[in-house]
Amino acid sequence: MSECECKGHEKPKGEPAYKRVLLKLSGxxxxxxRDYGLDPETVNRVALEIKSVIEExxxxxxxxxxxxxxxxxxxxxxxxxxxxADYMGMLATVINALAMQNALEAIGVKTRVQSAIPMAAVxxxxxxxxxxxxxxxxxxxxxxAGTGNPFFTTDSAAALRASxxxxxxxxxxxxxxxxxxxxxxxxxxATRYDRLTYMDVLAxxxxxxxxxxxxxxxxxxxxxxxxxxxxxxxxxxxxxxxxRFTIISD
Length: 250
What we know:
The structure is a single chain. With about 250 residues, this protein is α/β, with parallel strands linked by helices. It has a single domain (about 25-250), classed as Carbamate kinase (3-Layer(aba) Sandwich), CATH 3.40.1160. The protein is about 35% helix and about 20% strand. β1, α2 (about 40-55) and β2 (about 60-65) form a beta-alpha-beta unit. α2 (about 40-55) packs across α4 and α6 runs parallel beside α8 (about 210-220). The longest helix is centred in the middle third of the chain and has 25 residues, at about 80-105. The protein is globular. The termini are far apart. The model is unreliable at about 1-10 (pLDDT under 50).
């Protein structure tokens, strides 16, 4: 057993607070200390975090961004056609989804990648009922290629898939342990929130997720829990209703 497997992954005690969740990961979260691409150790550690939640009987699906490889908005800013740049960003999310699938299956977790852009050689097409059935069988479903449409972020894709999957919560994994009044890395005196409403986030422009994602989560009444993916065992703790996180709800 590796050090990563035995450290910080003890099974949580008690019943899960949520039975079906969507995990939203940024592509940057998979870079580790690198400036670009994927860090295998970080990908494997996140896979172990997901496995610890699956072992508690929780159904899990995931959306992973592609900013560690290509970000459509930045490509557009450099003069590239926005739609083309966004499609390139969607392909980056497929790369990340396949990397996470490989890491999960290496530790015994069954997975399926469903892509909003058909890629029959490497993934299933996105089919809502099939995705729900996979989760009911204990498989992790990784949704790739965003919504399949340009001009929408993977945050919007996460809120959309969480709504379609009838998830109990959307868990947004970030670099910090919740939502702050400002970036705590740049502003050490920033104040952390324990609880916010959807309207608080929109009115204060807190930029936790884009406005479309917040609005859709509000419409579907899906709470958003923001936590740090870099804290060992944090994903399982939040699913159990423990640990440090900010909850956004009505």
